[in-house]
Amino acid sequence: MDSRKSLIGSVFSWSIKDVLNNDLYKGRVKQIPETFSSLAEYLESFINPLIEETRSDLSSSMATLSESMCGEIDFVKPSKDFELPNDLFYTIGLKESKEKKEDDDDDDDDDDDLGKGDLVAITNVRPTCINDLDRPGRPYVIAFVLGIQDHIEGFSLFVQSSKPIRVEDDMGKNKKSEVLFAVKLMNMTTNIRIWSALNSDPKTANMNIIQKVLQTPFTNAENCTLCHAEDKCSAAYSAMKARISSSDLNESQQAAVLSCIGTRECHHHYTVKMIWGPPGTGKTKTVGFLLHSLLKMECRTLTCAPTNTAVLEVTKRLLKGVTESSKYHGYGCGDLVLFGNKKRMKIKNHKELYDIFLDHRVAVLSQCYSQKSGWNYNLLSMISLLEDPKEEYSLYLKEWEEKKLKKDDENADKNNVFSESREINTYGKKIFKDERNKKVWRQIVVPTLKENSKKENNVKGKHNEKQSNRKEKDGNGLSGKKEESEKDKKAENPLTFEEFVKERFNCRGESLYFCIKNLCIHLPTSLISLEVVKKMFEAYDSLKSFKKLLQDVSSEVLKDVNAYSVNEGHNFVKFNAARSKNLHILKSLPSKFPPPYSTENDSMDIREFCLEKACIVFCTVSGSAKLHKVGTMKPFELLVIDEAAQLKECESAIPLQLSGMRHAILIGDEQQLPAMISEEADFGRSLFERLAILGHKKHLLNVQHRMHPLISLFPNREFYDNQILDGQNVKLGNYSRRFLPGKLYGTYSFINVPYGKEEFDNKHSRKNRVEVSVVSEIVASVYEECKLTNKKFRVGVISPYKAQVHAISEKIGKQYNSSDAQSDFSLSIRSVDGFQGGEEDVIIISTVRSNVSGSVGFLSNRQRTNVALTRARYCLWIVGSGMTLVNSGSVWKKLVIDAKERCCFHSAEEDKNLANAIVAALLELNQTNILVNAHALLFRSAKWKVCFTNSFWRSMGRVRDGELFNKVLFLLEKLSSGWRQPQEKKTHLVHCGSSSHFLEHYMVNKQFYLVWAVDFIEESSYYTQVLKVWDVSSLSDIPKLAKQLDIFYGSYTVDKMSRCKHVCNDGNLVVPMRWPVDSSSHEANQFLPKSLGSLRLRDEPETSTTTNR
């Protein structure tokens, strides 16, 4: 059965109505059980959920068509395999935009690019919504991309379509026809690979491991007495046991590694091992040590992970261990291979992995194995040159004479000089013919070829480095012609003997240096021993030294190298001894290494050669499907899956079925994020989680070394039943670090933001701009502290919603957004999913949700919460609405209650800067109903209570000037503290109305004034003076405002006016007056607080504290 067609056939059969119908497979998608009675039941249980998941993904992609990659079609032609009615294969040419061409070398492509495995819609409009795909009279056509090829004007797609594309005849004949577009819908590659694994023939596929995990009890290889008897254990296993016991791994890590390598000793059972690695317990370190142990045991192992990011992380860990223990730089790297899509892996950002990346290795080894530029050619050529330079020079002169006699001298010479480069470049094109970015080739091999070509040019007489300095070309080009003429003249003469020897040595030497370094790096240790590597680097150093000696030697010495005259001087003896030494070393080296070639497709042979000879291979779980297609490759013994709890169980079937695979090691944590899926039925459940539910033994890594104990306390209790111990390093006093002053910014803090407002972006993701403002202000404060202290601060901001991540990134901008490890301040803003596996010094979590009902959506997911809470080393600050989270009844309710019990619950208003940030956000949101009571936010500890009018906030909202807002707040802070502007600085306005006795106007800037007055309010049976802020207005508009307020103040009684006009001085400050409600203003003095007992009225002599009316 063609499994690809089966899944694609289902997709092709759907109408748009089907795609959007969430109940299309209702009744057919059954809950996936925890145990299975047979292999057939196991494989079948995933089929319908996979189809439904594909439909759901396609439905989601159609909802965002306006953002999908869309290309204009240049032509549509039936392929040679086209045959109605089923084999609808086409070649579709796409035009490439100018912008795309300019960005082609950027290599920053992502999954939005069209490529193999994509599902595309072909339509006559550039779609922006679903309706554009299904217009009456012109329905869309679905096509599956089988391959892609570049050409000058764009690129071509080889596709299989769901229906005939009716316009191909017109477009093929260049007739005028309607414009067509191809828009990407989704990539089907992984789902097709899963489908293939689920539809494998049980008679031919390796189902041994899968058979062992269908139901309990599970086989335990450690209990195998046949393989684990003392006399049966291999020497390699015994050596690894000693290595493990002497390592710096803790007890739980050592036990896990020992158990896993012990599994390899069993050769007649098929087993699965599980390592449970909660956050901060050194899972990556443990996996790295395990893989290094398997490497030393020469155990052929496939290491996978669900994502490219996870694959790169574990690869780096092992590579670091290999290079640090290597006696020669890079030796041993040939035993490791990393392969995958270099664009999606963004391999250009991980240059330390180039030495084991398969595409790079193929390009480098292609040159090293080349007949005209490789190791064998250059080694033998160098030996010949050193043995008898006169003979080599004679051959050169003979060749030069023959070429001179040819009529097409110039062309023949040019072709000869560049033949080597052209051959290799042609070879490189073959290697990369299906890839639009050839950077690895250009960066590594081409520079070497160019350098070698330059040196060959000198040897062949094309250039002479000893020619005199030329004058720059003049404007009319005469000088340029003269130089060309001189160049041609010099080319008529061959190199001298001395020039020839030095140039040929330099050329061959550089090629040998390239081969020595790269063969040692890229060949597996099984093909190049440490002894050979030692000799090769000895040759490398010796040739470098000889090169210096060669530059100063005379032509006579060179000619007499074989004379062995005892009467020669010191220079000859020294030179000849060095020459003999080099010859001896070079002749001791292998002239050839085992060739990878067996077919005409050299690049494919090298690729398979590298995969077969490697001991540890890295790729994504989905990418491991490519290994099923690699000929007669040596089988893998072990499968290691990192982040196994993030992997759909059906996807793990891809590597588990590889030929020869006997044991699997799953590393993960089911308490962290699972695979991302759109539907339930436990389709997203991992094999790791299912086995854990069934009680399969897990090796728990039980010591965490990341989080301060105050941070680890809640997640350890809530998610791990207090099984995790804090490491000694996090218990030390120096692990407590303060990044900002104040209780609000302790090691663990919940910062309550009560005035947030949930909003949706265009992708229906939530954001909360009040929290955005608060988080941005905290980041700014930490950044300023970093600059003051000159210490390294690494900050992470996490939110469960992508819209919030985008809003925070947009608010902060690129001012602090540096991920450079050398930078003093590093800031990473990501979703919870994006932060899994990451850690930072300080983590700020924005929970977003703010509502009365306590609705928190997928924020209630315990696994998501666990990941968010366990990323911080020294400080964790959680920003959110305490009321909403408590009302949610979720794990977040427990968290808020826990924070309150531990005195770690704080209000954002405790920090003046955060209070200002909240008000600024509310102003932006036009939340004037909240802002009327802004005193509680801004002036909680001020002497004066500040009351705001709606007019003030409306004016501020109209202006929307952040700088003006900050100046107004600064002025209000001074006023609320009791400061008053000196009389001589006041601006006087001519106005005779009632309000003139009360209104004050202070300058904010050249354009605006703050208009305010003293009023009083009744609270707790007392009248208390307050500051009433009327508006922010231009000077010319104040009289108009005063006239409007005349009506307001005109209703005041004399007693009210008297209370408003009372002034109580405390030194240089003015403090508010306070009277019992049943008293008159004239009785003020006797009711003043005891602390103001010395206050006097204005008509009495003033002391340090007075009251005035």
Automatic annotation (TrEMBL):
Residues annotated as domain DUF6469: 116-199
Top-level taxon of the source organism: Eukaryota
Residues annotated as domain DNA2/NAM7 helicase helicase: 249-677
Keyword terms: ATP-binding, Helicase, Hydrolase, Nucleotide-binding
Domain DNA2/NAM7 helicase-like C-terminal span(s) in chain numbering: 684-881
InterPro entries, A to Z: DNA2/NAM7-like, DNA2/NAM7-like_C, DNA2/NAM7_AAA_11, DUF6469, P-loop_NTPase, SF1_C_Upf1
SUPFAM superfamilies: P-loop containing nucleoside triphosphate hydrolases (SSF52540)
GO terms under cellular component: chromosome
Renumbered residue ranges of the record's region Disordered: 452-490
Molecular function terms, GO-annotated: ATP binding; helicase activity; hydrolase activity
Identification of the protein by name: P-loop containing nucleoside triphosphate hydrolase
Provenance organism: Trema orientale
Organism classification: Eukaryota, Viridiplantae, Streptophyta, Embryophyta, Tracheophyta
